[in-house]
Every structure is written in C-alpha cells, then in structure tokens.
Amino acid sequence: MQVAKLSKVDKIYAIDHEMEYNYNIVRELDNKIDGKTIQDFYSNPFKYFPELKVDESKLTFFDRMRIGNTNDFLDFLILTNADLLTHVGSEKGFEGADEAAKFYKRNLRIFANLHRIPATKEDRIFILSGGSHTAFLREFMKRSPKYQMVNTLDYLN
Q1: What span, in angstroms and rounded, lies between the C-alpha atoms of 2 and 67?
Q2: What is the pTM of this model?
Q3: Per-residue pLDDT tens for 40-52?
Q4: Torsion over CA: 33, 89, 45, 140 (sign)
Q5: For the chain, which residues make up each domain, given as ranges?
Q6: What percentage of residues in the chain have a pLDDT greater than 90?
Q7: Which whole-number Å values give the CA distances from 92 to 24, 32, 134, 151, in the listed order?
Q8: Cβ atoms within 10 A of the Cβ of 120, count?
Q9: For residues 97 and 8, is the Cβ–Cβ distance under 8 A?
Q10: In which element (H, E) is residue 42 found?
C-alpha cells in the first residue's frame, strides 16, 4: 500500500487466486518414485545453485530483494516449489506431479486475473508478489504479446 501511495496509484487490483496445495506431500507420502533426489535437494538446496552465492546469515533486506529477483533464483523457486514434486509418487500414482500441477494451475489463474485488468499500452503495471508466484508470472509474461517486462533489478539500486 505504501508503494501505491508513494506512486500516486489510482487503483489497486488483487490478482491472487487461492487454491489448496499440499506442501507436505514429500513427508506424508511413502515415495516410490525417487526419494533420494528430492531429499538430497531439500537437505541443502543451494548446493545445486552455487551461482546464487547465498549465505543467508549475511544478507541484508536489499541483498535478499536483489538475489530474489535474479533469473537464477526465480528458476530455483520454480524447481523448489513445483518441479521437484515430480520425483514424488506412489507406485502407480502421480501424487507429487498432481500437486505441482495445482501450483502451476494457481499461477496460470493469477496470470488470467492479470489479463482481466483493463490496461492500455500506455499503462504500467507493478506486481507485488511472493517469489514463487513472481517466478511463474515472469515465465508467462515474457512469452506474452500483451506485456513488456522490465528488469526489477534496474529499480533495486
């Protein structure tokens, strides 16, 4: 709200779309697909992304904002919050993939809600979102003929 006030924004739109998503399926399900990969990743996720150079104990707020808006970190968030679940499932089921599909579906609906905002080519849209949703929106928007994204990092100096 403070960003909107400082920017003298006339109208704020909510585009979130709540959906159920089982974040605990990794722990709840007797995984028959590939428990090793997902457990190894979750034990030390930044090991798989050394280019992020994340030492959480030393990060300032602006460091977090800068790292959190890099392409590498946004890819990391999609992997962590959705794609890794494809390693989880029962012997004949796709429980992890189904949960990941729900997360993709939620983000697609958020993107659809963005399309519902009456905007012209002259309008600028600022989206404030959690990191995982930002990661998905970035992917959808960069392929869209309707939007031209700007690099968030250009504004975090």
Answers
A1: 22
A2: 0.89
A3: 998 988 888 888 8
A4: positive
A5: 2-155
A6: 65
A7: 20, 9, 33, 43
A8: 5
A9: no
A10: helix 35-43
